[in-house]
Write a structure and sequence with these properties.
Structural class: alpha+beta
Helix content: 40-55%
Strand order of the largest sheet: 3-5-4
Low-confidence stretches: 1-6
CATH architecture: Orthogonal Bundle
Oligomer: single chain
Distance between the termini: 39 Å
Number of helices: 5
CATH class: Mainly Alpha
Shape: globular
CATH superfamily: Winged helix-like DNA-binding domain superfamily/Winged helix DNA-binding domain
Order of helices and strands: EEHHEHHEEH
Radius of gyration: 17 Å
Strand content: 15-25%
CATH topology: Arc Repressor Mutant, subunit A
Largest sheet: 3 strands, antiparallel
Length: 109
């Protein structure tokens, strides 16, 4: 474990380059307002595309494009059941991040 002293003298963990790269890719994918809204709507639930469309309030085509980006970046997982595709956040750490952002930016919701 690599530790470095910052200006205040406290220790901090030096992140590995691959961890920084993965975090950067994930945050970039989540940075679009509509994609962030999709993640907030999903939370810890699994929803099919039409439920997401209804909750977010845009076209299915638009939602599908953003869902594909989030899925391709590994942020969402999907499964197909008959003619419906269900989506869920694939990693509990992403759920924690969304929860923290809600606390910071939406404290009264």
């Amino acid at each position: 474990m690599n530790l470095e002293m910052n200006e205040c003298g406290s220790e901090r963990l030096m992140a590995r380059t691959e961890d920084i790269d993965r975090a950067s890719r994930s945050l970039k994918a989540m940075s679009h307002p509509l994609r962030l809204k999709i993640l907030c709507v999903l939370g810890d639930r699994e929803l099919h595309v039409q439920e997401i469309v209804d909750a977010v309030g845009t076209t299915q085509s638009n939602i599908s494009q953003h869902l594909a980006i989030l899925r391709d970046k590994g942020i969402l997982a999907s499964r197909k059941d008959a003619n419906r595709v269900f989506y869920r956040v694939s990693d509990a750490r992403t759920l924690r991040l969304i929860s923290m952002m809600q606390e910071v930016f939406c404290p009264f919701n």
